[in-house]
Specification:
The complex is a heterodimer. Chain A is of the alpha+beta class. Chain A has one domain: 2-Layer Sandwich (Heat Shock Protein 90), CATH 3.30.565.10. In chain A, 47% of the residues lie in helices and 22% in strands. Chain A has six helices and five strands, in the order H-E-H-H-E-E-H-H-H-E-E. In chain A, helix 2 runs antiparallel to helix 3 and helix 5 runs antiparallel to helix 6. Chain A is globular, with a radius of gyration of 16 Å. By secondary structure, chain B is α/β, with parallel strands linked by helices. Chain B has a single domain, classed as Transcription Regulator spoIIAA. Chain B is built from three helices and six strands, in the order βββαβαβαβ. The N and C termini of chain B lie far apart (36 Å). The mean pLDDT of chain B is 95. Classes of the chains: A alpha+beta, B alpha/beta. At the A-B interface, helix 2, helix 3, helix 5 and helix 6 of A face helix 2 and helix 3 of B.
Chain lengths: 183, 126
């Protein structure tokens, strides 16, 4: 079955949506997004601790998209844009905040991303902390991120396992969807 | 040494590099997409300062948020200060965090585990 982006986006937008966006991720989009969610989190009356975590994880998530999202693949029957990323921040009833992101990834890269998340999901809180320090200390990552420091930071701040899905789109591209929960 | 002051912005912190008084301050949020661009001149300043530092350098870091892109640049700042410290100059680092902000407290501990200068962890009570 062909991946249906609209359907995915609609499904992820179920709940009390504090922010949603899909399209090209520019620096202006990032600034506006941060401004909006900061205001909405204040309105949502979240406690300080949760608000800080949600904001922090949101920053990391949207900047992941900014740095790593690929273009919409040709032959995917979707409208072309420069880069494409989708992000939704939702507060579900009686449940934690969820940040869902989705972007196209070239097949060459998806294996690494999948392995990285599986690895981080398999670690304890203490192991995540140690790995984070090791990577930070070695400086073995680019200013763009890389080395998985962003993913480790998200895992560390949320304290929850990340959930992901990989949907085939074309011969070369997949759609990578990630859900993180802040409780 | 010239003094560098950067006013804070929605994505970058307030910074004061005051060579005359040996005071370094970073406050607010550091969440730019390209943190190297922002921090490069600051690290260059520290390089120069390290050649003739004051007897005591006080460093105050009071961050509300910082992204992983900034985390390496902040480490680079501490590494420059570590060199100054190693040469026998006194460097004190004050790491401020809000009382219930465990993440920021732990971030201070992360740096402390890598950098060989004692950190003073200062809890700010609202």
């Amino acid at each position: 079955m062909r991946f249906d982006l609209d359907k995915w986006y609609l499904k992820k937008s179920e709940g009390d949506v504090l922010y949603k966006y899909r399209g090209s991720i520019s620096q202006v989009v990032v600034i506006k997004a941060l401004d909006t969610i900061e205001k909405n989190l204040n309105l949502a009356d979240a406690d300080n601790k949760i608000r800080r975590k949600v904001f922090s994880v949101f920053v990391e998530s949207i900047q992941n998209l900014f740095h790593h999202a690929d273009n919409i693949p040709v032959n995917s029957n979707m409208e072309l844009s420069d880069t494409f990323g989708a992000i939704v921040l939702v507060c579900e009833q009686n449940s934690p905040y969820r940040i869902s992101t989705g972007n196209f990834v070239h097949l060459d890269k998806i294996g690494n991303i999948k392995d990285r998340i599986d690895q981080v999901n398999s670690l304890s809180e203490e192991e995540i902390k140690m790995l984070y320090r090791e990577i930070l200390g070695k400086g073995g990552f680019s200013p763009k991120g890389g080395g998985g420091l962003g993913i480790l930071d998200i895992a560390r701040k949320t304290g929850n396992k990340m959930e992901y899905n990989i949907y085939p789109v074309t011969d070369e591209f997949v759609f990578f969807a990630l859900d993180v929960y802040i409780s | 040494m010239e003094t560098i002051i950067r006013e804070g912005s929605p994505k970058t912190p307030y910074v004061r590099l005051d060579g005359g008084n040996g005071v370094i301050e970073i406050k607010g949020r550091s969440i730019p997409e390209n943190s190297v661009e922002f921090y490069k001149p600051l690290i260059e300043w520290l390089d120069k300062y390290g050649n003739s530092p004051l007897e005591l350098t006080s460093v105050n870091v009071q961050l509300e948020y910082f992204n992983t892109s900034s985390s390496k640049c902040i480490l680079d700042i501490f590494k420059k200060l570590e060199l100054t410290h190693k040469k026998g100059n006194k460097v004190e680092i004050n790491w401020y965090y809000e009382e219930d902000d465990e993440d920021m407290f732990e971030a201070g501990e992360d740096y402390q585990s890598i950098i060989n200068i004692p950190f003073k962890m200062i809890e700010m009570v609202e």
